[in-house]
């Protein structure tokens, strides 16, 4: 069943010029980009987005980092997209992320770890609504979808 998930390419991805390299991995996997925009995050959005971390001593560092440059927020779609993306990005601590994952190939930090991705389908729904209006998400058919999925998977 097709799902949508949120990916945020963080300030380190933007400032290191890695946007194209990271995006191409998701496209080459067969996921479909259905929403994308560059934005500047603010404290209000970050407090909602990282609500589970706002009482941690490192939260001010997260806010400082995430507001240090624009970020690229994206909505991706595909069969089991949430789990596929989580596998592709690797574990949070980039030093422990497997080679071949986004974090394993491009990052060396826990906090400066290139990308945020929704952790489950429920989080994806909430996060997509946080960052996108409904008219900013699109539906279309990739030209190669019949080569990516079997008929009963679409």
UniProtKB/TrEMBL annotation:
Keywords assigned by UniProt, alphabetized: ATP-binding, Cytoplasm, Kinase, Magnesium, Metal-binding, Nucleotide metabolism, Nucleotide-binding, Phosphoprotein, Transferase
Positions annotated to bind ATP: 10, 58, 86, 92, 103, 113
Record-linked Pfam families: NDK
InterPro entries the UniProt entry points to: NDK-like_dom, NDK-like_dom_sf, Nucleoside_diP_kinase
Enzyme Commission (EC) number: 2.7.4.6
Catalysed reactions, as listed in the record: a ribonucleoside 5'-diphosphate + ATP = a ribonucleoside 5'-triphosphate + ADP; a 2'-deoxyribonucleoside 5'-diphosphate + ATP = a 2'-deoxyribonucleoside 5'-triphosphate + ADP
Transferase as UniProt keyword: yes
Cell compartments where the protein resides: Cytoplasm
Cofactor: Mg(2+)
EC top class named in words: transferase
CDD domains to which the protein is assigned, alphabetical: NDPk_I (cd04413)
Quaternary assembly: Homotetramer.
Family (UniProt): Belongs to the NDK family.
The name this protein goes by in its record: Nucleoside diphosphate kinase
Gene label: ndk
């Amino acid at each position: 069943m097709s799902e949508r998930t949120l990916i945020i390419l963080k300030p380190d991805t933007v400032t290191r010029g890695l946007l194209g390299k990271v995006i191409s991995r998701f496209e080459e996997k067969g996921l479909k980009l259905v929403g994308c925009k560059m934005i500047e995050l603010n404290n209000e959005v970050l407090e909602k987005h990282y609500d589970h971390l706002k009482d941690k001593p490192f939260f001010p560092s997260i806010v400082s980092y995430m507001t240090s440059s624009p970020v690229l927020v994206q909505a991706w779609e595909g069969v089991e997209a949430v789990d596929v993306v989580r596998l592709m990005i690797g574990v949070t601590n980039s030093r422990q992320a497997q080679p071949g994952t986004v974090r394993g190939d491009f990052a060396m930090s826990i906090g400066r770890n290139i990308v945020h991705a929704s952790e489950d389908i429920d989080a994806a729904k909430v996060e997509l609504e946080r960052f996108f209006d409904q008219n900013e998400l699109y539906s279309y058919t990739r030209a190669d979808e019949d080569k990516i999925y079997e008929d009963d998977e679409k």
